[in-house]
Amino acid sequence: MSDPALPAARPTVDSRRLTAAPQPAHQRAPGGGADTATVFDIANVDVFYGSFHAVKNVNFTVAKNEITALIGPSGCGKSTLLRSLNRMNDLVPGARVAGTVAYRGKNIYDQGVDAVEVRRRIGMVFQKANPFPKSIFDNVAYGPRIHGVKRSELADIVEDSLKKAALWDEVKDKLKQSALALSGGQQQRLCIARTIALAPEVVLMDEPCSALDPIATARIEELMVDLAKQFTIVIVTHNMQQAARVSDKTAFFSTEVNELSDTRTGVLVEFDDTQRIFTTPSDERTENYVTGRFG
Ligand SMILES: Nc1ncnc2c1ncn2[C@@H]1O[C@H](COP(=O)(O)OP(=O)(O)OP(=O)(O)O)[C@@H](O)[C@H]1O
């Protein structure tokens, strides 16, 4: 199912297995050997919920095969901005996005762009693992099935996606068992497999580790670094160490008080290489946040 209003989907790339110790993103060779083409160009983006101005005038770009982290104090609009990157905010009553979210040069909010196709190209993994009450196989096959993929191709897609999500070895003998019997960390990797089964180019992750223990978190972090060889990742995280460990670029958001309405609007304070944000940020607000003096 392709949308003529969107540029052609990327070709599928072969799966690569997880390596035991991932190289932190900022230590990988520049661009990781991949081209650094711009995937998103986010320009003058504002997001409103009814009359509430949640996020103001956001501008930054997301490069292919990089991990971009969105950090900042609670309520600064990280999740709101993330949801605006694949039109997930369309599903929130009263939400409105202004400005341009150009994906591969095309504004995803232009008339005629199919939001369902946008969400297939730009998948999303949520804070809390949300497997369907179905078998492991059917969870991963769900998306391809509803997109009309032939029955004969499903088993290969399920295996490939579970391998990419570093879950195959743990579940290959129990694909017919309920996904709800998996551990929290396994369920989150299953949700990642379910997302990548649709061969997206981008995976958005909204605090994917916040409900997991440190071991399961480390596993997902390894996985993210591995997945970035094939996918472009944007992650919201409360965990600054996580942003520092896995991401190439970091966007730091904060809030400004609107005197008249006594509400707070999220603003992008600084966007730069992750290493720079955590060592020599250019804005005092960023420095205060990353050194723990605020937030
Ligand atoms: N569905 C909604 N309707 C109305 N206001 C909303 C909605 N979702 C979020 N908001 C408001 O928008 C602002 C930004 O919220 P958002 O959840 O994007 O921030 P965040 O930085 O991701 O926060 P957290 O780190 O606590 O998850 C907050 O003031 C929040 O109350």
From TrEMBL:
CDD domains: ABC_PstB_phosphate_transporter. InterPro entries: AAA+_ATPase (IPR003593), ABC_transporter-like_ATP-bd (IPR003439), ABC_transporter-like_CS (IPR017871), P-loop_NTPase (IPR027417), PstB-like (IPR005670). The keyword Nucleotide-binding applies. Pfam families: ABC_tran (PF00005). Gene3D superfamilies: P-loop containing nucleotide triphosphate hydrolases (3.40.50.300). Residues 1-33 are annotated as: Disordered. Residues 40-280 form the ABC transporter domain. GO terms for molecular function: ATP binding. This is Phosphate ABC transporter ATP-binding protein PstB. It comes from Glycomyces mayteni.
